[in-house]
């Protein structure tokens, strides 16, 4: 039995004046309590408790040890209460890193609910279209589209899988027509996100078929929102994950193109420093995001197929 438990047993003995009562409070047998009290006295090398047939009382040394032990245990309970309160009511600054597109579509709309639930957390969103080093930049949680981190000290938690889809505005399609085959894409205006893997080679699959199409961009950018704005304005065909364009497709602002073909899918993951005990602000945000993604059914929506043209 550890020292804290021995100390707690002794304090119960001193307060109740009864070994059997102390054993009951500690949920142990009288014999076990007697052994633990004897072990405490042997370890300290002093007699703490005297017994006779009628009563139990503390020695002078036992009385001094009781006063100090009771104070130490009270401090320990206060420390635990403080930690538990912090776990229920997290505080501090939560630093989140994500792309601008993800920040706009899937973090900013949730901040009111999160901060109402945890009002003592200050949220800092670092919108960056590149992967910041989590440790060097003091990032608490990052949104990533890669499944493996080069740093083994980073933990990955999967949120959802998403398709990458081709879309264009009704205005663009009315002017330039729908591409009927993958080869026809080369005659259309493409809007390309330069941070995608092999952005100028689109690898399509359909059942057992596969085809790679080399494309040339009319507009390229390192930011998905610039490309999305251009697509909405009728500039060309956009290649982006469903999590960016899903609402535009549902609203009819963008129309899926060649949707019977699939591009390589990506996953949306949370990445955070690996620690045995996560801080309350990090744990609550991770759980909050995971809960929201399940509630919204994002993976089902983002991996579904749209109308084929």
Helical fraction equals 40-55%
* CATH architectural group of the largest domain: 3-Layer(aba) Sandwich
Mean pLDDT figure: 89
Domains, number? 3
- Form type: rod-shaped
Global Rg = 31 Å
Strand content: 15-25%
Give the SSE order as H and E letters.
Answer: HHHEEHEHHEEEEHEEEEHEHEEHH
N/C terminus separation: 72 Å
Strand order of the largest sheet: 4-3-5-14-6
Which runs of at least 5 residues are low in confidence (pLDDT < 50)?
none
Descriptive notes:
- The protein is an alpha/beta fold and 309 residues long.
- The protein has three domains: 3-88, Arc Repressor Mutant, subunit A, CATH 1.10.10.10; 92-161 and 267-299, D-Maltodextrin-Binding Protein, domain 2 (3-Layer(aba) Sandwich), CATH 3.40.190; 164-264, D-Maltodextrin-Binding Protein, domain 2.
- The protein contains eleven helices and 14 strands.
- The longest helix has 29 residues, at 60-88.
- The protein is rod-shaped and about 105 Å long.
Blueprint (SSEs and pairs):
Blueprint: H1 3-16, H2 19-25, H3 30-44, E1 49-51, E2 56-58, H4 60-88, E3 92-98, H5 100-107, H6 111-117, E4 121-127, E5 141-144, E6 154-162, E7 164-168, H7 170-176, E8 190-193, E9 201-206, E10 209-214, E11 217-221, H8 224-232, E12 237-241, H9 242-251, E13 255-257, E14 266-273, H10 280-296, H11 298-303
Parallel strand pairs: 3-4, 3-5, 8-11, 8-12
Antiparallel strand pairs: 1-2, 5-14, 6-14, 7-12, 7-13, 9-10
Summarize the model shown.
This protein is of the alpha/beta class.
List keywords for this structure.
309 residues, alpha/beta, Arc Repressor Mutant, subunit A, D-Maltodextrin-Binding Protein, domain 2, 3 domains, 5-stranded mixed sheet, 42% helix, 24% strand
């Amino acid at each position: 039995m550890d020292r804290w438990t021995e100390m707690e047993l002794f304090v119960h003995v001193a307060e109740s004046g009864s070994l059997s009562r102390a054993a009951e409070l500690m949920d142990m047998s009288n014999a076990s309590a007697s052994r633990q009290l004897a072990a405490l006295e042997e370890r300290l090398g002093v007699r703490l408790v005297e017994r006779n047939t009628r009563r139990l009382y503390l020695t002078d040394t036992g009385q001094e040890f009781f006063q100090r032990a009771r104070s130490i245990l009270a401090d320990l309970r206060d420390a635990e209460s403080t930690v538990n309160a912090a776990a229920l009511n997290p505080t501090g600054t939560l630093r989140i890193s994500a792309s601008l597109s993800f920040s706009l579509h899937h973090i900013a709309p949730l901040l009111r609910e999160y901060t109402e639930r945890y009002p003592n957390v200050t949220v800092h969103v670092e919108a960056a279209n590149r992967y910041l080093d989590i440790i060097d930049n003091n990032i608490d949680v990052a949104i990533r589209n890669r499944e493996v981190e080069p740093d083994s000290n980073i933990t990955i938690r999967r949120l959802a899988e998403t398709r990458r889809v081709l879309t264009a505005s009704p205005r663009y399609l009315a002017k330039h027509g729908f591409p009927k085959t993958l080869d026809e894409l080369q005659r259309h205006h493409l809007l390309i996100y330069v941070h995608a893997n092999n952005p100028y080679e689109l690898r399509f699959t359909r059942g057992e078929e596969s085809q790679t199409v080399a494309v040339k961009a009319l507009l390229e950018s390192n930011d998905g929102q610039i490309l999305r704005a251009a697509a909405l304005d009728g500039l060309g065909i956009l290649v982006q994950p469903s999590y960016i364009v899903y609402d535009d497709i549902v609203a009819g602002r963008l129309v899926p193109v060649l949707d019977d073909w699939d591009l390589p899918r990506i996953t949306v993951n949370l990445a955070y420093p690996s620690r045995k005990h996560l801080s309350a602000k990090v744990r609550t945000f991770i759980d909050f995001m995971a809960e929201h993604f399940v509630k919204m059914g994002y993976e089902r929506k983002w991996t579904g197929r749209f109308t084929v043209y």
